[in-house]
Design a protein that fits this description.
This protein has 185 residues and is an all-alpha fold. It has helices at residues 15-38, 41-60, 69-87, 120-129, 132-143, 148-155, 159-181; strands spanning 2-3, 10-11.
């Protein structure tokens, strides 16, 4: 609720009603976003529900300017990062990420060039073996296509520390990938 120019006229924006109208389209978008990044249907479903609960909470606290799918995807991204942080210490297995959910995105702007053709199934296995901090950084940078400053902000790191993390994450990815392929490590 907001008062206009000190008058008693009040402009009401019903964000709850907007969310309800947007829900049918938004729930599919949010789920697909999360499924593509976590690779696990059950986790994506849980995180989708968490996203909408958080959205309702923000609306109830009057902490939102505009209810859009982009806003919901932003909440989903934070929920996914929180999930990875909670799961960070859990041992990984190759079954943690379903191969069909992994996408290969080439690095941009002169960054270290990865192999041009990567077996998607193998990528899922390698991503599952990475530590939470490496996996999170790689997904945000290369799957989501975020610039390094945004990745740094989401991870709570400096830009320099994030660049270093990405170099180490790519190196670890390559080491695991080549070791599993029987190639040079």
């Amino acid at each position: 609720m907001m008062t206009v120019m000190g008058n008693t006229d009040v402009t009401d924006v019903d964000h709850g009603a907007t969310l309800l109208r947007l829900y049918d389209q938004a729930v599919d978008e949010v789920f697909r976003y999360l499924r593509a990044r976590c690779g696990n249907r059950a986790i994506a479903e849980d995180l989708t529900a968490d996203t909408f609960l958080a959205a309702v909470g923000q609306i109830q606290r009057d902490a939102v300017d505009d209810v859009t799918i982009a806003w919901l995807i932003g909440i989903a991204r934070h929920k996914l990062i929180d999930h990875w942080r909670r799961e960070g210490r859990r041992p990984r297995t190759t079954g943690d990420i379903e191969p069909d959910a992994v996408h290969n995105t080439a690095p941009q702007n002169g960054e270290e060039v990865w192999d041009a053709v990567i077996n998607r199934e193998h990528v899922g296995s390698v991503m599952a073996q990475l530590g939470e901090h490496h996996r999170c950084a790689l997904v945000l940078r290369y799957f989501d296509g975020l610039p390094v400053p945004e990745v740094a902000d989401l991870l709570g790191r400096t830009i320099h520390a994030t660049e270093t993390l990405l170099v180490r994450a790519r190196r670890q990815f390559r080491t695991i990938y080549e070791r599993n392929e029987g190639g040079p490590a």
